[in-house]
Each structure stands twice: as structure tokens, then as C-alpha cells.
Specification:
Blueprint: E1 16-20, H1 24-37, E2 42-46, E3 57-60, E4 63-66, E5 72-73, H2 77-86, E6 90-92, E7 98-101, E8 106-109, H3 114-125, H4 128-143, H5 145-151, H6 159-167, H7 169-174, H8 179-186, H9 190-205, H10 213-221, E9 227-230, H11 236-244, E10 248-250, E11 253-262, E12 265-273, E13 278-283, E14 285-288, E15 301-302, E16 316-328, E17 345-348, E18 358-361, E19 380-386, H12 392-398, E20 399-414, E21 426-428, E22 431-433, H13 444-462, H14 474-481
Helix pairs in contact: 1-11, 1-13, 2-11, 4-10, 8-10
Bound molecules: flavin-adenine dinucleotide and the ligand CC(C)=CCC/C(C)=C/CC/C(C)=C/CSC[C@H](N)C(=O)O.
């Protein structure tokens, strides 16, 4: 068995692999490809912007704050493993009290007393919240099967095959029906959906309860307790994985990818441009680890493919993250005296005229314990998610006054519902696409799972071990193997 723990490659190993994108997807791919193909293969990772991609921080008042991907679930085992391997530290997500605002008043307020909150939920929504908790737990339990399959080396040639392996038609159907339909079927009340579920979809994906049920479940998992982040910034995982993989970072934009016959196999020519020069290289395997929807603007064109590669359907959804250093205007929320405002996060319902999705007091990335949130009468740092950039009237509505606003206008995640398709993983012989998985669910861990899957798939297809691809009934197979 080679370093990767898999059977030695019987043919010549690939000599050069390219990965386009140095977000968590691309850097995790580099890490896993190194693990499976061993120390000899040359791995280039192209990045046109900043390593980390949608994992990014901004600096306010000499402190760094997450402006992109911020929280990680305790059951996100790849992210957990990366942090351990890289010697990084966990930062517990200190949530603080949350309230739901409908544009006029708070319709739901968290208190300091868990039992009182539980009673209020029961009084207003019956057992909807218990039904929901059990639904999310069951989905998370089935999702966790992927780690067992991947540990045994099994790979999947499409997102459909991967989801089908986890729960038969269950997860696949959940990508094709809306969250609200699924929850109503579950017996969750419409009021609970409107007042609790909809605000979570707005803060996590900037979209409403018509998004597919599977990504809705991912979003609800991202609203549970026991969430965490990486001390120093989640993007440290990306730079760390590049180093761990001994990958070569090329700060350049890949502009074209084209196939060239090389004996029985195909090589790919990548043309790329830095700020000062253009370049071109040939690779045995290429992984595209950035969304290819035209609205995202990767700028990659696929030339010379016969038949031509299909365009990626759908679009990405804009979410503007504004990091504001200032004084929250508590009067807008019905609290004239800021000393009496007890909430750390304000979520919003799908009410007309509400110009923001959420506003939350946030802590710096380097604070791991004992962070004391500023009280609203003190100047604090807040993260506001909104569909459009906040204009001056909007800022003056939310903040009595402010020192600074740092705006990041993200092509954040898929605009769910803009297509039903789950994009392919295999674009051509040894040309793979990672970000199709985002149409099932967009999260750091989803890109990490896709990265591991592509590394395994590329390895098995290269070494023609196709019995490890798209295997059915894996739970039973693995049980009997044990
Ligand atoms: C505001 C916001 C909040 C979020 N919050 C969370 C959260 O709390 N928890 C969570 O798990 N997830 C969260 N997410 C989602 C998560 O951040 C993403 O799913 C994940 O970071 C995607 O990683 P990726 O590597 O697949 O793609 P990206 O991070 O987009 O990386 C793609 C990279 O490719 C580069 N690139 C593109 N085209 C080219 C080219 N032609 N040549 C070279 N390089 C190119 C880009 O510059 C980019 O760096 C959030 C996302 C946003 C936007
Ligand atoms: C992939 C699985 C099984 C679980 C991931 C759960 C998770 C961490 C989801 C995050 C969803 C998301 C895109 C959140 C964006 S906003 C995050 C937070 N609410 C904030 O306000 O920063």
C-alpha cells in the first residue's frame, strides 16, 4: 500500500495536477490529492484573488472579523480534522440572545432562562420545534455516513450518486422539493415556518422558505448550538492546507482550459494571466474548484471540447456583508434606552420593506474565550447581512452613529430555485468540477466533502479501480467488511 493507504498505482502516476481556486474547496482538494497520489505528483493551485475565497476577514479598529464563512458545525468532521492536522485552535461561537423582528416589533425574544424559552415556544408553536429538531438530527445522522464511505475509499461520479448513497431517494428528493413543503408535511405549523424558519433562511442564505429542503436542513444545522470557528480566521485552514499539501500557489487567473490527446489519455492545457504576464501549462488532471455560473465571473472558458461542455445553469445569490463599527439604534427595535436592549443578534421575518436580513454583534477572530460583547450603549462591531448595499438612510436607521462600515458584496451561494439541475462532477476524462455540490448545500463542509470525493474519484479513475466508484448499498457492504 502506498503512502495514501491505497493500492499502489499500477500505471504511471500523474506527473502534474492543477486546481483552479484556493478557497476551502480547492485547498482541501490539494490536501486530499497529495494524500492519495503521494509525494511525487506536482500540484499547482491557481488563485486569481485571495487564498480563502469566500472565507475572508476584514479589519476594524485593529481587530479582524469574519466577513464570509463564519461558523462550523460540531459534526463537520473534515473541517474539524483540518484544524487538528494544522495545529489551529477552535473558537467557540458565543451566540448571545437572539430576537426576531418583523419590521415593527420583536415577535420572538430569547431570554436568559432556557425553560422559559422552551415554554414560550411550546405555547406559541406547539411541538413544531421538537418535530424540527428530530428532522434535522435524522438528516445529520444520515449525512455523517459520507465520512465512513470516504474513509473506506468509496467515491461517487456525481452529486446525485453521492446523495443517493447516503439515504436512497430521500436526500435527492429533498433537493427537488421546497423546505416549506417538507416541513408542513412533517406537521410543523405555518406560524413556526414564518416566524422561526424563514428568519434562519434569510440570515444563512438570504433566501426564503421556497429553497430546497436539503439546503434548508443544512441551514437549520447551521443555526443549532455547539457551533465553532477557527481562532485567527477560518481562512487559515486554506493557507494551512496549501502548505500541508506542498502545493504550488500560482497567483493568476485561469482563462482557458483545453484538452489535448496524449497517447491513450488526455492532457489539459491551462492558459492563465497574472497582473504582469501570461502563461500556459499542461496537466494530467484538472479540478475546477470555483463556481462556473456565468454570474460568478470565474472567467474560465473551455475551448476545443467536442462536444462542447454545457454552460452551468442557474445563478449565484448576492449577499452584502457590512461590518459596522458604531452604536446600534435600539430605538428602531422599540428599546429607547440602549442599556435595556439584551440581544446580540436580530433576525428578520420575510416582511415587505425590511431592508436587511440580520444584524448581529460579532467578536474578533482572535478571541477564543471570555469575549464580553459590547453593550449597545458602547460602540460595538456588528455584521449586517442585506440583499443590497446599505445606503446612508438604512445605516442611520440601524445605527445611532458609526465610525466605519466595511462592505463585501458576495456572490454568496446558489440562487436556489434558479435551476433544478445538480451540475456534473466529471466534466471530461480527468477534468473535475467541485462546486456542483453547492446546489445541494453551500457550506465549508460541503466543499470539503466534495474535495475528498474528487480526490478519491480521480485516484480510482486514474488507477482504473472503478469498483470503488458509485457502489450501492454501502452501509451493508461496510458492515459485512468489518
Ligand atoms: C457571506 C457568507 C457567509 C457564509 N457563512 C458560512 C458559514 O457560516 N458556515 C459555512 O460553512 N459556510 C458559510 N458560507 C459558505 C462558504 O463560505 C462557502 O460554501 C465556501 O467557502 C466555498 O468554498 P469554495 O472553495 O468552494 O469556493 P470559493 O471560496 O468561492 O473559492 C473559489 C476560489 O476560486 C477563485 N477563482 C475563481 N475563478 C478563478 C480563475 N479563473 N482562476 C483562478 N482562481 C479563480 C476565487 O477567487 C476563489 O478564491 C458563507 C458564504 C458567504 C458568502
Ligand atoms: C454541511 C452540514 C451537514 C452542516 C453545515 C452547517 C452549517 C455550518 C451551515 C452554515 C450555513 C451558512 C451558509 C451560513 C451563512 S451565515 C452564518 C451565520 N448565521 C452568520 O450570521 O454569520
Amino acid at each position: 500500500l502506498g503512502d495514501s493507504g491505497f493500492a499502489q498505482l499500477d500505471g504511471a502516476p500523474p506527473s502534474k495536477i492543477a486546481i483552479v481556486g484556493a478557497g476551502i474547496g480547492g485547498t482541501a482538494t490539494a490536501h486530499f490529492l497529495r494524500q492519495h497520489f503521494g509525494p511525487e505528483v506536482h500540484i499547482d493551485v491557481f488563485e486569481k484573488g485571495t487564498v480563502g475565497g469566500r472565507l475572508a476577514t476584514v479589519t476594524v479598529n485593529h481587530q479582524d472579523y469574519e466577513s464570509g464563512g463564519s461558523i462550523i458545525h460540531s459534526l463537520n468532521l473534515h473541517m474539524q480534522d483540518f484544524v487538528k492536522q494544522l495545529g489551529l485552535k477552535y473558537r467557540k461561537n458565543v451566540a448571545g440572545k437572539t430576537a426576531v423582528f418583523n419590521g415593527e416589533e420583536f415577535i420572538l425574544e430569547e431570554t436568559d432562562w432556557y425553560l422559559l424559552d422552551l415554554f414560550r415556544l411550546w405555547w406559541r408553536y406547539g411541538i413544531s420545534f421538537i418535530r424540527l429538531q428530530m428532522w434535522v438530527e435524522e438528516i445529520m445522522e444520515k449525512f455523517m455516513r459520507i465520512y465512513k464511505y470516504q474513509a473506506h475509499g468509496y467515491a461517487f461520479s456525481s452529486v446525485e450518486e453521492l446523495l443517493h448513497s447516503l439515504s436512497g431517494s430521500g436526500f435527492l428528493n429533498m433537493t427537488r422539493c421546497s423546505l416549506s413543503e417538507s416541513l408542513l408535511e412533517l406537521g410543523v405549523s405555518q406560524r413556526f415556518i414564518d416566524e422561526v424558519i424563514a428568519p434562519v433562511m434569510r440570515v444563512n442564505y438570504g433566501q426564503n422558505i421556497s429553497i430546497p429542503a436539503f439546503v434548508g436542513a443544512v441551514s437549520l444545522a447551521g443555526a443549532q448550538a455547539n457551533l465553532w470557528a477557527v481562532e485567527g480566521g477560518n481562512k487559515l485552514v486554506c493557507s494551512g492546507l496549501l502548505k500541508l499539501a506542498k502545493a504550488n500557489l500560482i497567483q493568476a487567473q485561469v482563462t482557458t482550459i483545453s484538452p489535448h490527446a496524449a497517447g491513450e489519455s488526455t492532457q489539459y492545457q491551462l492558459n492563465y494571466a497574472t497582473l504582469t504576464e501570461k502563461g500556459s501549462e499542461f496537466y494530467d488532471i484538472v479540478v475546477v474548484a470555483t463556481p462556473l455560473q456565468s454570474s460568478v465571473g470565474s472567467g474560465i472558458s473551455f475551448q476545443g471540447f467536442e462536444p462542447p461542455l454545457p454552460d452551468m445553469a442557474g445563478s449565484y445569490h448576492h449577499t452584502v456583508a457590512s461590518i459596522v463599527h458604531g452604536y446600534l439604534n435600539c430605538s428602531y427595535f422599540g428599546f429607547p434606552d440602549p442599556k435595556l436592549f439584551p440581544f446580540a443578534s436580530v433576525l428578520t421575518t420575510d416582511s415587505p420593506g425590511l431592508f436587511f436580513n440580520s444584524a448581529a454583534s460579532i467578536c474578533p477572530v482572535n478571541i477564543s474565550t471570555g469575549f464580553r460583547r459590547k453593550q449597545p450603549q458602547e460602540a460595538g462591531v456588528y455584521k449586517v447581512f442585506s440583499p443590497q448595499p446599505l445606503d446612508k438612510p438604512a445605516l442611520k436607521t440601524l445605527f445611532r452613529s458609526y465610525y466605519s462600515v466595511q462592505v463585501t458584496d458576495w456572490q454568496a451561494y446558489p440562487h436556489y430555485g434558479s435551476t433544478q439541475d445538480l451540475p456534473p462532477v466529471v466534466l471530461h476524462d480527468s477534468l473535475y468540477y467541485l462546486n456542483g455540490i453547492e446546489w445541494a448545500g453551500s457550506a465549508m463542509e460541503m466543499s470539503s466533502v466534495a474535495a475528498k470525493n474528487i480526490a478519491l474519484l480521480a485516484y480510482h479513475r486514474w488507477s482504473r479501480q472503478l469498483e470503488m466508484v458509485d457502489q450501492k448499498d454501502l452501509m451493508h457492504k461496510i458492515k459485512t467488511e468489518l
